[in-house]
């Protein structure tokens, strides 16, 4: 699989261990403050997660080239969005295309859905519908919320390292928001989460009267055989096989 395909569906690992580097130089007040912030990261409310996701997505938009409304990419995505719908369990969904040769697509807990033109160039509309159904599955099933919580905790761990040098814990600057966005986009979902999102996409497409076969052929294009990026994840061919099994059962 090409390097630029690595962040799609089977995502890169996110190092999220909380480590108070050099904490022996920190005062009790510093440790208490960081401890409370760590607790807050683990207990972020849905609204907190959506607010952080909104800001992180906005920062990604600011750093990216967005397809103009009149472009062929935007018009094509609007057609796909109309079929998928613009609301997910009460969360408004916002779709945009990033102009880049990278092959990727992702969604955040606030309903921010972004598709890269490189992915659109290699896939049919039906395949994109399958991929985006998968990404919406991560949102609907709470995986994206957890990814933001872990990413936020990771940023706090970095602040802890800075605080060990008597630096104040930094607020979320644009660079921090960009780091949060990158961490969420590249977050590692478990094998079960990936399969659950696959199955969600299948059921969601069926509910929307969209042919779910595109999800299987999307995996065919992304997988290139039985190789998996991470051993803890199912291979693309296995995931395609799972969808085709469900297709066969649907026709019975």
UniProtKB/TrEMBL annotation:
**InterPro entries the record matches:** Mito/Outer_Membr_Metalloprot (IPR051156), Peptidase_M48 (IPR001915)
Mind listing the UniProt keywords for this protein, alphabetically?
Hydrolase, Metal-binding, Metalloprotease, Protease, Signal, Zinc
**GO cellular component annotations of the record:** membrane
Question: Does the keyword Acyltransferase feature in the UniProt annotation?
Answer: no
- GO MF terms, alphabetically ordered: metal ion binding; metalloendopeptidase activity
Which cofactors? Zn(2+)
The Peptidase M48 domain, residue ranges: 79-245
- Give the record's GO biological process terms: proteolysis involved in protein catabolic process
Gene3D superfamilies named among the record's database cross-references = Metalloproteases ('zincins'), catalytic domain
Cofactor binding comment, as recorded: Binds 1 zinc ion per subunit.
Entry keyword annotation includes Zinc? yes
Please give the name of this protein: Putative metalloprotease
Q: Signal sequence span per UniProt?
A: 1-23
Sequence similarity: Belongs to the peptidase M48 family.
């Amino acid at each position: 699989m090409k390097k630029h395909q690595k962040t799609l569906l089977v995502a890169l690992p996110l190092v999220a261990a909380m480590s108070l580097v050099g904490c022996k130089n920190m005062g009790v007040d510093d440790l208490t403050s960081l401890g409370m912030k760590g607790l807050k990261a683990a207990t972020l409310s849905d609204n907190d997660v959506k607010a952080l996701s909104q800001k992180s997505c906005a920062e990604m938009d600011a750093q990216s080239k967005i397809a103009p409304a009149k472009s062929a990419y935007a018009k094509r995505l609007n057609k796909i969005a109309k079929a998928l719908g613009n609301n997910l369990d009460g969360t408004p969904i916002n779709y945009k295309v990033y102009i880049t040769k990278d092959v990727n697509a992702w969604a955040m807990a606030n309903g921010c859905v972004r598709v890269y033109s490189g992915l659109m160039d290699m896939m049919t509309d039906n395949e994109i519908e399958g991929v985006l159904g998968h990404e919406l599955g991560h949102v609907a099933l709470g995986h994206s919320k957890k990814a933001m919580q872990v990413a936020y905790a990771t940023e706090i761990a970095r602040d802890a390292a800075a605080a060990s040098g008597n630096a104040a814990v930094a607020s979320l600057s644009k660079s921090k928001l960009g780091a949060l966005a990158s961490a969420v986009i590249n977050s590692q979902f478990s094998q079960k989460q990936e399969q659950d999102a696959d199955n969600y996409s299948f059921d969601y497409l069926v509910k929307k009267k969209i042919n779910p076969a595109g999800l299987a052929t999307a995996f065919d294009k992304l997988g290139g055989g039985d190789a998996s990026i991470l051993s803890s994840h199912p291979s693309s061919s296995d995931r395609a096989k799972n969808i085709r099994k469900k297709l066969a059962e649907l026709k019975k």
